[in-house]
């Protein structure tokens, strides 16, 4: 799983990390039972404080996406598919973005900003 952050973004670093993990799970890059990188290792590779990574992992735990296990780290829980109305809303949002010439990266950034609020 590749996690990248943009230190110049208005989105908090911990939220960028959490969003990247959410995307990895949603895309099937990381599946149920797999471990996320150790907080210390991820913090070192991203050049952020370990507590920033732990804050992201705690948010993911609170959402029910991962389980934090002592000695085993962050483990992805079984995927719960989003409800149909969320899938419909996403399809509508993507169609609207395409209609207005908004690319996927810009749309992702806007969604990430909204989640961070």
TrEMBL record:
Which molecular-function annotation in GO is an example for this chain?
DNA binding
Q: What is the lineage of its organism?
A: Bacteria, Bacillati, Actinomycetota, Actinomycetes, Sporichthyales
**What's the protein here called?**
GntR family transcriptional regulator
PANTHER family in alphabetical order: GNTR-FAMILY TRANSCRIPTIONAL REGULATOR, HTH-TYPE TRANSCRIPTIONAL REPRESSOR YTRA
Which SMART domains does this UniProt record tie to the protein?
HTH_GNTR
Which InterPro entries does the UniProt record give? Tscrpt_reg_HTH_GntR, WH-like_DNA-bd_sf, WH_DNA-bd_sf
Arranged from A to Z, the UniProt key words for this protein are: DNA-binding, Transcription, Transcription regulation
Q: Residue limits of the HTH gntR-type domain? A: 11-79
């Amino acid at each position: 799983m590749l996690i990248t952050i943009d230190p110049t973004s208005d989105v908090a670093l911990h939220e960028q990390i959490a969003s990247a993990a959410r995307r990895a799970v949603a895309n099937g890059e990381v599946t149920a039972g797999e471990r996320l990188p150790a907080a210390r290792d991820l913090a070192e590779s991203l050049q952020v404080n370990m507590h920033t990574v732990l804050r992201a992992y705690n948010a993911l735990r609170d959402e029910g996406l991962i389980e934090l296990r002592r000695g085993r780290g962050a483990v992805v829980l079984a995927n719960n598919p989003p409800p149909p109305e969320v899938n419909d809303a996403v399809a509508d949002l993507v169609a609207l973005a395409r209609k207005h010439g908004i690319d996927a990266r810009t749309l992702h950034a806007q969604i990430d900003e909204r989640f961070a609020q």
